[in-house]
Design a protein that fits this description.
Number of helices: 9
Bound molecules: coenzyme A
CATH architecture of the largest domain: 3-Layer(aba) Sandwich
Number of strands: 12
Oligomer: single chain
Strand content: 25-35%
Number of domains: 2
Length: 303
């Protein structure tokens, strides 16, 4: 497994990645499928899903994000990825994981679709360019007065409270809770993405996760009640020190319009697929319900 992972992710500390992502995830251990050559037993490919509690139209279910799909170059275009995705769905069902989702690379998407996955929407990068940020900055600082970002350093019960207030029964979204946030953003290998509570005075307004690349800042996650989202975004924009801001969410889902109103422009998009066990709530195939942010993926660096 580690050998194939290091072929797939050359230069990264795969042992560290394995223990963090595969073994220590508070929502459940990874479900992994390995393809082997029938005669020699040689491993040819791997794919995994990483469990994630989900809120699906008001009900709590167990879902997962897909990741680390890899087939050795000499074994490609023989249907191995497709077969692994089929096998993975069976293993998921056996482990009580009902759905897998995410924006895969194009060749992997074809394999997933052949195995039964459906494209539901597109995740799109939205950017607020430097010029606009400098024009909106002073105005934003007035709107954001009294607001601040407070770093999250471990399991923080405010995460659960903010998430519960932010969601409603129409949404399909991965759950943000204290355990997940601590594992994903405090204990992750690179610590490049830092989580914050967004406060306005003493009011808990929202959650955000930021990644800096110089003065360019990625909003990796943003959670707030829809009435507070614009305000939370102003606080994030003015407190982050960003010259340019970028984020990525479902372009037909909740909050996409708020980004437009806040001066974010749509850029390139990527198909977002759902691979679900039989009998799954049809809500998971409704583009308008999905809130999926960059931080819901398995990449602990995005810019
Ligand atoms: C993506 C990957 C896992 C696909 O593995 P695979 O076993 O070759 O995939 P399959 O044979 O099941 O391919 C299914 C279909 O996907 C499409 N496809 C896959 N690889 C393709 C390629 N290089 N060029 C064009 N189409 C491709 C084809 O439609 C293919 O069917 P076909 O061969 O009958 O035309 C493999 O190329 C890989 O490991 N790539 C590097 C790592 C990576 O990108 N991982 C995905 C991260 S999301």
């Amino acid at each position: 497994m580690l050998h194939l992972l290091s072929e797939h992710l050359p230069g990264s500390d795969v042992a560290r990645r394995y223990s963090w992502l595969y073994e220590q995830n508070p929502h459940g251990r990874a479900v992994t499928v390995i393809a082997r050559d029938e005669r020699s037993g040689e491993p040819l490919g791997i794919t995994s899903v990483f469990p994630r509690r989900m809120l699906i139209a008001g009900r709590m279910r167990l879902g997962s994000i897909g990741g680390d799909g890899y087939v050795r170059p000499s074994a490609r275009r023989r249907g191995i990825a497709t077969a692994m995705h089929r096998a993975s769905l069976e293993r998921m069902r056996a482990e009580g994981v009902e759905i897998m989702f995410g924006p895969p690379e194009p060749h992997n998407l074809r394999a997933l679709e052949r195995a039964g996955a459906r494209v539901v929407c597109h995740v799109r990068r939205f950017a607020r360019p430097r010029l606009l940020q400098s024009v909106l900055g002073p105005l934003g600082r007035i709107v954001a007065r009294g607001g601040r970002l407070v770093p999250i350093e471990g399991r923080d019960p405010r995460v659960d409270r903010i998430f519960e207030r932010a969601v409603d029964d129409t949404l399909v979204t991965p759950v943000r809770d204290a355990a997940h946030y601590a594992w994903r953003f405090v204990e992750c290998p690179s610590r490049a993405q830092r989580a914050f509570v967004v406060l306005s005075g003493d009011k808990l307004l929202g959650l955000c996760v930021l990644e800096h690349a110089g003065r360019r800042v990625a909003i990796v996650d943003l959670v707030a009640h829809p009435d507070d989202l614009g305000h939370a975004l102003s606080i994030v924009a003015s407190s982050s020190g960003a010259e340019a801001l970028v984020t990525q969410i479902n372009d037909r889902g909740p909050h996409a319009r708020s980004l437009g109103r806040a001066g974010f422009f749509p850029r390139e998009g990527k198909p977002f697929q759902v691979h679900a066990c039989e009998g799954m709530d049809p809500a998971v195939f409704d583009a308008r319900r999905w809130y999926y942010a960059w931080g819901d993926g398995d990449l602990d660096r995005v810019i």
